Amino acid sequence: MDADILESRQRLNRSAFIRVHPRSNFPPSNRRPLPLKTKLVLFDIDGTILSSGGAGEQALAQAIREQFGQEEKLGNVELAGKTDVWIAHRIFEVRGIEPKPESVDLFLDRYLHHLKVELARHNGRLLPGFPEILHALARLPNVAVGLLTGNLRRGAELKLGHYGVLEHFPFGAFADDSRDRNELGPFARKRAHDAHGTEFQSGDIYVIGDTPHDIACAKAIHARAVGVATDRYSRAALDAAGADFVFDDLSDTEGVIRTLGLNPA
Predict the structure, then answer these.
(1) Alpha carbon distances (Å) from 76 to 69, 89, 92, 210
(2) How many angstroms separate the CA atoms of 150 and 125, rounded?
(3) For the ranges 53-57, 70-74, 236-240, 243-247, which has the lowest average pLDDT?
(4) Given a cut of 90, is residue 8 above it in pLDDT?
(5) Does 131 sit behind a cis peptide bond, omega within 30 degrees of 0 on the bond before it?
(6) How far apart, in whole angstroms, are the C-alpha atoms of residue 223 and residue 217?
(7) Taking each helix axis from N to C terminus, what angle separates 101-121 and 55-68, rounded to the nearest 10 degrees?
(8) Cβ-defined contacts of 194-198 (< 8 Å, 24+)
(9) Would you tell me how many other CB atoms lie within 10 Å of the CB of residue 61?
(10) How does pLDDT run across 119-178, given as a tens digit for each residue?
(11) 41 vs 120, 160, 183, CA distance in Å?
């Protein structure tokens, strides 16, 4: 299986995360220029856009059994809001094993291999407000949408693709960029600039997530932190973490857009 996994990794590394239709980069000369994007909305995935129904945890458990020949012990490993690379390092550390880069890479390959299988086996779902809010944001000519997630790039692709919303996210920042979530914001900002030609100002960037780690990640780039109490953290906990806005969920699409001030002037 190791050979299959490594071969799969090589193929994945050669592929793009999301392939934009080639015509989007070369508009016909009779088209008007695309409207200037002035607002940037960056979404977390797990607990914000979707719940995998435990698929991610089960994929980690399978990888632990294969890598260490042990039953999973995730009780000492914080998962919510952490990056996949941070989680992998922590899994090694709680076993007293040095997280050498090649060993961590193999572990994450195993995790991704099992994630694809487990997503099909588990009864996950899109969370309230999705995909409606993505469709609404796509209709706003001034808003760009991307990801700011602790998932590996390939893990994000698998999860969003499984639940049918991958096409809404042409760029993002991922655990591949840094194991420290608070370092991901500049990667997302740079890719947004590359995609839209806009230097998004901090006050025009909105980071939406369900954990205090998402709030801290937003604050690290002086962006607006938007908490959604759709998973284990309450409104009070997200408020205490310093969120600028907190919603129970994103089901009131127009209310969310209006509260955040995303409508064009």
Answers:
(1) 18, 12, 11, 21
(2) 19
(3) 70-74
(4) no
(5) yes
(6) 9
(7) 140
(8) 195/144, 195/146, 195/170, 195/171, 196/37, 196/144, 198/36, 198/37, 198/38, 198/40, 198/144
(9) 18
(10) 999 999 999 999 999 999 999 999 999 999 999 999 999 999 999 999 999 999 999 999
(11) 29, 17, 17
Beta bridge partners of 30: none
Altogether, the residues listed in the chain come to a count of 265
Q: Name the pLDDT band for 92 (thresholds 50, 70, 90).
A: confident
What burial class does residue 143 get, using C-beta atoms within 10 Å of its C-beta: 0-12 exposed, 13-18 middle, 19+ buried? buried
Reference 249, options 220, 208, 215, 206; nearest CA is: 208
The CA–CA distances, whole Å, from 40 to 9, 168, 191 equal 31, 13, 11
What's the maximum distance between 2 C-alpha atoms anywhere in the chain?
A: 63
Structure tokens at 128: 């309230």
Where do runs of H (alpha helix) occur along the chain?
2-14, 55-68, 84-93, 101-121, 132-138, 153-162, 185-196, 212-220, 235-240, 253-260
- The first and second tokens of residue 86, run together, are 């941070």
Which of 116, 72, 114 has its CA nearest to residue 90?
72
Q: Average pLDDT of 214-225?
A: 97
DSSP 8-state class, residue 54: T
SS3 86: helix
